[in-house]
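User: Good morning. I'm curious how magnesium ion would be positioned relative to this chain. Could you predict the structure with it bound?
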Amino acid sequence: MRTAAIIVAAGSGDRLGAGMPKALVRVAGLPMVTWSARAFDEAPEVECIVIACPPGGEDDMADAVAGHADVHAIVPGGSSRQRSVAAALAAVPDDVEAILVHDAARPLITPALVTRMVARLRGAPAVIAAAPVADTLKRSDARGNVEATVDRAGLWGAQTPQAFRAEVIRGVFADAAGDELDSATDCAGMAERRGVEVLLHDPGSPNFKVTTPADLRLAEVLLGTGRIT
Ligand code: CTP
Ligand code: MG
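Assistant: Good morning! Here's the predicted structure, ligand included:
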């Protein structure tokens, strides 16, 4: 399938607190976004990469990926993640058959994961990376005490990439109003709401989102010396 990859990299990274856009913070020698751009560039299925960057940061983003990935377009992102996806979607060529949406904040993505997910997309309209919840889950009350233990059977943590048949994700975004783009936290949720069947795909190796300084240190170790594949 002719496949495009969207990398959303327009966030500010407030929780990381690096004083610069999170996607440009260096991890194991490369800007964080560059790990994802490189993985998509190396995946044979992907023929087009579009990146949403902080408005005004187009040149910095181009510098970050130069020499590592062939990027089709770098576009200014929006005020929410899903608005950034919408902006990037508009720059994806019309003739692609599959579109993967990925967080720049997940630098542990591998070309093999992309290949496996595109393969599963042949038999489904949507496939998302996700991991079964491993911890015992508790619900808290207003005071921060345990109110209940929640059955974790059937619960997964959603990740990215999230892969869609092109006509499916385009239809979902064409149908979405502004307030949904402000409140939704992933593309799959928007698709589910419209009755799209979404498959879960466990990457089987770490694919966490870099949110805090501790996450950054862990990603640094895994990408630098201890990569688990
Ligand atoms: N993102 C985006 N546009 C936004 C907000 C987020 O493209 N307006 C992207 C981020 O760049 C990131 C992904 O969505 O790759 C997941 O968001 P998150 O981890 O929350 O990143 P930030 O919003 O940058 O971090 P924070 O919430 O701590 O500010
Ligand atoms: Mg955020």
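The CA atoms of residues 109 and 207 lie 6 Å apart. The domain at 3-224 is CATH 3.90.550.10 (Spore Coat Polysaccharide Biosynthesis Protein SpsA; Chain A).
Let me know if you'd like a different ligand tried.
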